[in-house]
Structures are given as structure tokens and as C-alpha cells.
Amino acid sequence: xxAKDFLDLEEKKNLQEALKEEERGEVRERILMFLLLNxxxxxxxxxxxxxxxxxxxxxxxxxxxPNNLESLEDRRKNGNHKKATDEYINLLLTIxxxxxxxxxxxxxxxxxxxxxEHLEKETGIKLSGSQVRRILKRKKYVYIWAxxxxxxxxxxxxxxxxxxxxxxxxxxxxxxxxxxxxxxWDECGFSLRVIRRRTWTKKGKRKKxxxxxxxxxxxVMGALRYNDKKRICFMIKKGNSETFHEQLKKLHEExxxxxxxxxxxxxxxxxxGQRLSSx
Length: 279
Description:
This protein is an alpha/beta fold.
């Protein structure tokens, strides 16, 4: 009977990560066996939880190695497993940074297993997903969430001009906050069908994927004032130009009320109140 917490922290963490990344159901099942046994469940309880026989749990606990995921594969499979060459590794590092769709695949992200299968076609060298995963980790790659980006739709010239204008307003708002207020405005949407993708990428970097969605969202609009970090937030049903205009009017009313609360006359706001710039 295995003792509770027989795995050290690093072994447990590696198994938990492998459980998330591994696509083969039989290997995930065997990883889960070790994690459940480590949590103090008996082999019988583990078998009942997973839905397999007690004999199966006992076999893999005796023959599997939590530090070697290849030991959790069925050795009855045929195949000539060759050691990865330098050419194989260089090709792997090239392919992992490419979009799978550029190579004719329908899926949009690489997993270790998919990389292994593709490279087997390219090189004739058959490695497991676990072996490919270890190579990538040695080369400082991590499997993290990709970042949604709409940079391909941005006009670089207009963006440059916008930044220059913004810097002028920021300087003025810092020097004379009684004349100009700069508010940073943004919208955050909570998708009703969130698709978050994890993919292999170099440590310290994050890949970008298309951020366009075609399902419903719950939206929040909010603003942050530059000089004192005051925040205002509005819950909205739908994000469009009309809603945006309505929230800007609410922001304007909030600033006007603030002006009045400071002891100023409402009729003086139009001429003497701060000018607002929203970004």
C-alpha cells in the first residue's frame, strides 16, 4: 500500500501539468492513478473512482515511474523509436513557432503529441509526445495560454500619430489638472463561450491568436482618470456606438457633479470646467 504524499512537490507538479497537456486518455488515466494514490486513496478507491479494475491500478503503480511518463505507455505497441537528432530538434523549434494552419492542418494550436506526429512524417523519427515535451522544456519553451490580438487590423501610421497626441495631453493634464482631464476608457467583455488556448512558446514570450468572437458577451465599460486614478465603471448589455455615447454622457455628468460639489456654480461649468479627453 503506497504511503500518502509519496511524491515530492516537483514530481506532483510535473504530473499535474502532464495531466492537463496529455491527449491520450490511457496515459492521463495512469497519471491520475498516481495523483489519487498520492492523496491518500487506496488502490481499490482509486480503481472505483477511475472506473477500472484493481488489478490495473496495482500493475501501473508497480511498473509505472512518475518521473518517466514513457513508462506509462503500453510497451506492446510496435515501432522503432529513434533518438532525436540535432536536425530533428532544429526542425521542431522551427515548426513549433509556425501556425498549424499554414501547414494544412485544421487545428489552431500545437500540442506535444501533434508535434511528434508531424515530425514523424517529416523525419521518419518516431517520438512520443512526452519526449517532445521534454525537448521543448530543455529549450526553454513553456505551455501557456496564448494572447488574443487584433494587431493585424491596426493602422501603424494612425497609431503613431495617436501616441504623439496622447503624450501632449498627458503632459498638459499633469501640469494643469484644473484645466484638462485625461481619462483612459476601455471595454471588457465576458464571453458566454470562452475559448482559451494554451500553446508552446519561448519563455518570457506569449503567442498571439485571433481575438474575434462570434458569441454573446456580457460587457463592462469603465474609465480611469490619469492624474488621481479615479475609476468609474458601467455595466452594459451590449457594446456598440450608441451604448458608448450613453456612457460618455454619464461620465460627463459625473465630472460636472464633481465640479458642483467643489463649490462651483453649475452655469460656470461650460466655460470654466475642465476639458475632457477620453482614450
